[in-house]
Amino acid sequence: MACVPCLLLLSLLRASAASPLPEEPCELDDEVEAIRCTCNFSDPKPDWSSALQCLSAVQVELHGGGRSLEEFLKRVDLDAKPQQYVDVVKSLPWQRLTVAAARVPAPLLASALQMLGYSRLRELTLQDLEVTGTTPTPLLEASGPDLHSLHLRNVTWAARGAWLAELQPWLKPGLQVLTIIQARSLAFSCEQVRPFPALTTLDLSDNPGLGESGLNLALCPHKFPALQVLALRNAGLETLLGVCAALATAGVRPRQLDLSHNSLRAEPGAPKCVWPSELLSLNLSFAGLEEVPKGLPAKLSVLDLSCNRLNRAPRSDELPKVSNLSLDGNPFLDSEPSNPEENIGNSGMVPICASSSLAVGMSGTVALLQGARGFA
Ligand SMILES: *[C@@H]1O[C@H](CO)[C@@H](O)[C@H](O)[C@H]1NC(C)=O
Ligand SMILES: *[C@@H]1O[C@H](CO)[C@@H](O)[C@H](O)[C@H]1NC(C)=O
Ligand SMILES: *[C@@H]1O[C@H](CO)[C@@H](O)[C@H](O)[C@H]1NC(C)=O
Ligand SMILES: *[C@@H]1O[C@H](CO)[C@@H](O)[C@H](O)[C@H]1NC(C)=O
């Protein structure tokens, strides 16, 4: 699909430089002080020339309205890189690109990435895409974009577990942030995946079908040597021991681990697992915990136990040494006689755990969706 931008925009650019430009789709993003344009091709007969304005924006969103891009495959030639296209792509100001809602043949995606290799793109988001077919191997390694972040949300791949290994050679190796949420294939063919030497953040949140066994398949051993932040929010995890063991097997040593919104259960008598010594911050909020789990790392800087079901204040011997502990939103805080100052502070306050029902609702939908299709 991204090459629909390239191929289409570029041929349009040559053919019709004088199309009228619709005004609204672009706006100034105050936060980053850059123009953001949305080009929406959802209409059954889209006005492709409206894509022109997206050429001059720094942040670009392309919506395909769920259309299939098979027809553009005929025009793709992975070996041909006409110089005029290369020059235009080099001059694009694009830094952030979102491509959403389309059925994309994998060779088209590969050709788009190859073209984007000439751009200054730093952040790519693929959302609600169905990628069909298999991705060809690039002639030249790492000929795609030099991305800082790649976000995938609800992207399905005909290549199933092989997709990551197929996609990887199309990216330069400097990727620092990888988000894969609402995925259906996280069981990677690890022997084909190469290490991500610069990847510091991996976010596998909102994959409620993952669980510990899925986590073992997703965390390819020794492929994430620089990982510092691992987010596993709402990932169907049930035991801390299972997570700890998966990290140990994969040789992943994060500093920050987010396990919030998982229904963790106590494991009396479970064997201990050695947490990575680097681990400084652990998020166990919204985890349905009725007691402080055993086997936590001995020392942490941040431990978030907010919005659980702790009925009594944890004893100091139950907690690790931690400088920044949050116990907000646990039942024992409601029943405890509190000093007047706190009462004033609490009265009329929006309950801090209110977002819980929202998150659970959303997870439920995703769970249903994944349950219906099976998690592979
Ligand atoms: C794109 O346009 C269609 C109508 O053609 C509209 O229903 C849809 O909400 C738009 N999508 C976005 C992301 O703007
Ligand atoms: C996921 O993407 C598909 C298109 O591939 C779309 O039909 C579906 O509605 C999306 N699901 C969600 C939950 O957004
Ligand atoms: C822990 O996770 C919850 C929910 O995902 C989030 O609201 C909270 O800010 C996180 N806590 C820390 C210390 O990052
Ligand atoms: C505790 O950690 C949270 C999340 O990392 C941070 O926002 C907060 O400022 C920290 N508080 C203290 C007192 O260090």
TrEMBL record:
Q: Could you tell me one molecular function GO term of this UniProt entry?
A: lipopolysaccharide binding
This protein's assembly is summarised as: Belongs to the lipopolysaccharide (LPS) receptor, a multi-protein complex containing at least CD14, LY96 and TLR4. Interacts with LPS-bound LPB. Interacts with LPAR1. Interacts with the TLR2:TLR6 or TLR2:TLR1 heterodimers; upon interaction with ligands such as diacylated lipopeptides and triacylated lipopeptides, respectively. Interacts with MYO18A. Interacts with FSTL1.
Single Gene Ontology BP annotation: positive regulation of toll-like receptor 4 signaling pathway
What keywords would UniProt list here? Answer: Cell membrane, Disulfide bond, Glycoprotein, Golgi apparatus, GPI-anchor, Immunity, Inflammatory response, Innate immunity, Leucine-rich repeat, Lipoprotein, Membrane, Repeat, Secreted, Signal
Q: What is this protein called?
A: Monocyte differentiation antigen CD14
List the source organism.
Jaculus jaculus (Lesser Egyptian jerboa)
Q: Name one GO cellular component term.
A: external side of plasma membrane
**Region annotated Disordered, chain positions:** 319-346
Subcellular location, record wording: Cell membrane; Golgi apparatus; Membrane raft; Secreted
According to the UniProt entry, which residue ranges have a biased composition of type Polar residues?
A: 336-346
PROSITE patterns associated with the record: LRR
Tell me how this protein sits in the membrane. Answer: Lipid-anchor; GPI-anchor
* Signal sequence annotation: 1-18
Q: Which InterPro entries match?
A: Leu-rich_rpt, LRR_dom_sf, Monocyte_diff_Ag_CD14
